[in-house]
Amino acid sequence: MKIFFEIRKQKYLEALDKKDRAKAVEILVKDLKVFSAFNEDLFKEITQLLTLENFRDNEQLSKYGDTKSARGIMLGELKKLIEANPLFRDKLNFPTLKNSRLRTLINQSLNWQHQLCKNPKPNPDIKTLFVDHSCGQSQPNGARAPSPVNNPLMGAVPKPAGFPPLGAHGPFQPAPATLPTSLAGWMANPSTVPHPSASAGPLGFNPASSSAIVKRPRTPPTNNPAVDYQTADSEHVLKRTRTFGISDEVNHLPVNILPVGYSGQSHGQSSYSSDDLPKTVVMTLNQGSIVKSIDFHPVQQILLLVGTSTGEIMIWDLGSRERLVHKNFKVWDHSAFSIPLQAALSSDYTAAINRVTWSPDGTLFGVAYTKHVVQIYSYHGGDDLRNHLEIEAHAGSVNDLAFSYPNKQLCIVTCGEDKLIKVWDAVTGAKQFTFEGHEAPVYSVCPHFKETIQFIFSTAIDGKIKAWLYDNMGSRVDYDAPGHSSTTMAYNADGTRLFSCGTNKEGESYIVEWNESEGAVKRTYNGLGKRSVGIVQFDTTKNRFLAAGDEFLVKFWDMDSVNLLTTVDADGGLPASPCIRFNKEGILLAVSTNDNGIKILANPDGIRLLRTMENRSFDPSRAASASIVKSSAMTTFGVSNPSAGPSVMDRVTPMSSMVAMNGDNRSLLDVKPRIGDESMEKSRIWKLTEITEPAQCRSLRLPDTKNPTMPPIRVSRLIYTNSGLAILALAVNAVHKLWKWQRNDRSSTGKATASVVPQLWQPTSGIFMTNATSETNPPEEAVPCFALSKNDSYVMSASGGKISLFNMMTFKTMTTFMPPPPAATFLAFHPQDNNIIAIGMEDSSIQIYNVRIDEVKTKLKGHSKRITGLAFSNVLNVLVSSGADSQLCVWSTEGWEKQTSKSLQIPPGRVAAPVVDTRVQFHNDQTQLLVVHETQIAVYEAPKLEHMKQWVPPEASGLITHATYSCDSQSIYVSFEDGSVGILTASSLSLRCRVTSTSYLPTNPNSRVYPLVVAAHPSEPNQFALGLTDGGVIVLEPLESEGKWGTSPPAENGAGPSSLTAGATSTTDQAQR
Which residue intervals define the domain CTLH in the entry (predicted)? Predict the structure, then answer.
């Protein structure tokens, strides 16, 4: 805007200087008046220049010279403005070009122009670049040859002839041949090295000249608009973009197993911001042993494969939080192994896992163990896991494993402690290549391809990086990793950028991007620790971001900036160098934890995906279809037309291949009806889960020092601390109680659990946190309320008297304010500013109060009875209030004006009390609003308060006393006057589990005890706590063997839709209870 203003101002001054007042007035009205809205005083001052005979009489313009000098000054100012604009960063300086760049461009252009010549000249004339070149019958180079792309006989085989570098055109003389100096150049310059590669088994087809493809790229086909081919004069000349980020290896798969798409998502960098990073912890998975490797399924993105230090393999369905598969390390066939290995296994039958990884289509996965062995499993959905291959791959530890597609045939690439890289047929297990050349154990492998050239990067623990083609010619490059570190290499999603990350023996870690054209480090990213514990692991996502686990954090970078973008501690509990892994779309991130678990982090799309996929397991029919197609393409003979994908015949008659893959002779006719029958059977047998006995769940009554002879003092408010390490309760006598869990052998995290008894905590001073009370409004009759700061350092609370601010460490009262009347009835912190508090009052008003300056900013009026609920949405920038009048109001947090209001719909046949608490809480998506009323649970969509769903409990349960979302917003915990708790599936508002009071309370027919309030753990979605009428607090969790509270009824049973439309952002803040 300032740029436009400076230009228009200069035009205005030039018109005044020429005494052309009519032109000046026109510029003032048409061009400058628009800026008056931003600075009215400046516009008035500019207008006053019309009254002056010479505008230089204005003091600020007294130094104005002639038009030429003024324009020069203006251009200088504009240059500064443009250079300061971050949008133009790195775009204003002409790039530094090497002296040889022009020669390279001319060579590439000549090669491109003449690539289809039938009889190419040894040295094509440079003049042929002056016009578009096309060889015909009359051309000296001969007739146009068929395109190698479309020629069915040639397939993808390049022509053997290639133009040499331009050598007969004056100054453009090629340099003497030297060893290749780039990561890309070795493909064009195969060199003979003293490290031959031994080959065993059938050799795949090798083109006569791999360099021909590199030096003479194919003409872009016109029949594939989905693929964007790069031009020759960029450093990406060898890099081919791929449709939707799916590699060529899986592009030929049938449609029914392609990854699930999400609206608005692409791999374009400009469409992402750091807000798209998965940073919200949505669940924690308990593994039981140290996590060594993790990998998301490439198609079903909620399936997570895990390998541990004890050799365990697990597959988790994140949608249902079920562990689908659990396998311990076990050798399938001892007799097939060498005698030394048999002896080693007989003395120590244990092995840790170094790597687990899925095949590109997700029908297979590989496991690399610390003892010689690689095992390949075929996965068919659910818990259907079958042994496929067991290979004695290396002498000693197998350090890494990956899948690749040389010659369109699926292979397994391994590396190990024996300093070797080996390639195996993924169908038969036959060894195809052995690559020798490293002088230290090989740490990792990274298969990749450019055009039709398949190759493998390998890294060793001495920091050496080598590259190999699938041939007998040895390594093509020999580089040093930064800091001579043990390094992992990875390409971004579309395969155009290469990164590496590693840690050396001194603990120094490096994460870099490579310039493949130059064979050098392009940029080194800042922010990794100088003394890392273990080897730092990293991953890439969305063609935009890098992530690494370091210093007990997950660190993120923008690929185009060397500075650290942001960090996430995942609510604590991470090891020094955690394992990390994105799913394919980058909307979920798995991170290993200190307590042998995995935390799943999600962005808003990930949260929506998990909620949508709840109770929807992996579709076995998709896996079966995938395995059929893949097995037909994985025969030892390959496929006849690899570029075309499977034929119709491949898809309908793969029985022999299926037997080879799966080890049984069942046909599709056997499989599909069985799957359908199982689904129908599950629908028929589903029933509500009833928890009626203490043995059916884990419950813990928190310890208390109350005198048993004293009358019960009911708990009126209850909340977990944001860290999940403690529970805070407020009783009707205005006294707070705090229970803290300690770290010990039974609880390494120190988080709240029903398995460990916490301490009723009090500072050494022995004081209590007790609210101020009012004689006219005693606490027994008042409406208590409290709110906890985000860092758990202080609590704001009221019990009919002044509002008190307490220090949570010392229990000391820091200040009191707002004496009644009216009394505060609900408190909520502003999500962006802890100094701003929304205070619901007994007189039905809402006061927006600034604690720092002790001032009421504004007072909101819209209810007719006291305020009973407040909830902020930091996405919609609104505050939603609810009152004892059963009314909802939406207020803008920018101007605090009321946007809309709506009265709650009372269910037919039910009569609401004249004054009844109505609570509100936002879903994690910050758009859906949970409304809790004694007669119903309802879901509205903000900000228009559109009524989406309603659940009315049976009258036998009594009235609803309270309800809250679980921390992941996938469940709703509802407490009732009959003492029971209902667990609803949030997406459908269907009751899936009922916990009766007999499961957590001793039987006493003379007492009527029931929960008044329910609180959800901030990071454990299946844990909740109850505040009871007898003053007790109960923590409840499902049995470890169950893992969750029941299962949702299938849609066929009339449960209704399984999902709602989610919003755009998530939050970890808890709702006010």
Answer: 1-23
**Confidence class of residue 342 from pLDDT cuts 50, 70 and 90?**
confident
Give the H/E segment covering residue 105: helix 101-113
* Residue 499 Cα to chain centre, angstroms: 19
Tell me if residue 64 falls in helix, strand or coil.
coil
Sorted by sequence, the CB contacts under 8 Å of residue 740 that are 6+ apart come out as 725, 726, 758, 759, 761
Is 272 in contact with 266 (CB distance < 8 Å)? no
Please say if the pLDDT value at position 744 is more than 50: yes
Alpha-carbon span 295 to 537, nearest angstrom: 13
- Among 31-40, 115-124, 160-169, the least confident range: 160-169
Average pLDDT over residues 347-360: 87
Distance of CA 396 to the CA centre of its chain: 35
Query: Tokens for 939?
Result: 């879901």
Which burial class, exposed, middle or buried, applies to 854 when counting CB atoms under 10 A from its CB (0-12, 13-18, 19+)? exposed
Task: Dump pLDDT digits (tens) for 117-137.
Answer: 656 665 667 777 777 655 544
The structure tokens listed for 286 are 């308990």
> CA–CA separation, 682 vs 1044, rounded Å?
18
Q: How do residues 608-651 score in pLDDT, each as one tens digit?
A: 888 877 644 444 444 433 333 333 333 333 333 333 333 333 33
The size of the chain, in residues, is: 1073
* Cα separation, 489 vs 486, whole angstroms: 10
User: Are the C-beta atoms of 387 and 377 separated by less than 8 Å?
Assistant: yes
d(CA 857, CA 855): 6
With beta carbons less than 8 A apart as the criterion, state whether 562 and 521 touch: no
**Pair type for strands 845-850 and 836-841:** antiparallel
Structure tokens at 736: 């707070």
Please name the residue that has the structure tokens 């203490």: 694
Which residue pairs from 662-670 have beta carbons closer than 8 angstroms and sit at least 24 positions apart in sequence?
662/378, 662/380, 662/386, 662/627, 663/386, 663/387, 663/388, 668/624, 668/628
Kindly give, in sequence order, each residue whose CB lies less than 8 Å from that of residue 647, ignoring residues fewer than 6 positions away: 641
Residues 6+ apart with CB under 8 A from 209: 158, 160, 162
Query: Which two structure tokens, joined as six digits, stand for 830?
Result: 């502003």
Q: Token pair for residue 885?
A: 């009048």
> What is the rounded end-to-end Cα distance, in angstroms, of the chain?
47
Residue 99: count of CB within 10 angstroms of its CB: 6
Q: Which uninterrupted H or E stretch holds 1025?
A: strand 1024-1028
Contact 187, 473 (CB under 8 A): no
Quick one: tokens of 616?
């929807």
**Within a 13 Å sphere around the CA of 836, how many CA atoms are in the beta-carbon half?**
13
At residue 536, what is the residue type? V
pLDDT of res. 273? 73
Residue 604 sits at φ, ψ, to 5 deg, of: -55, -40
Q: What is the Cα–Cα distance from 322 to 503, expressed in whole angstroms?
A: 35
Q: What is the average per-residue pLDDT within 927-943?
A: 94
**Tokens 């007072």 belong to which residue?**
859
Q: Cβ(538)–Cβ(488) under 8 Å?
A: yes
888 and 904 in contact (C-beta within 8 Å)? yes
What residues contact 997, with CB distance under 8 A and at least 6 apart?
978, 979, 980, 1009, 1010
What is the C-alpha separation between 438 and 616, in angstroms, rounded?
Answer: 47
Average pLDDT over residues 884-890: 94
Q: Are 881 and 898 in contact (CB under 8 A)?
A: no
Backbone angles phi, psi at 14, to 5 degrees: -65, -40
Consecutive H or E run containing 797: strand 794-798
| Distance from C-alpha of 861 to C-alpha of 863, rounded to nearest angstrom | 6
Residue with tokens 């939080």: 321
Who contacts 891 (Cβ-Cβ below 8 Å, separation ≥6)?
Answer: 846, 860, 862, 878, 879, 880, 881, 897, 898, 899
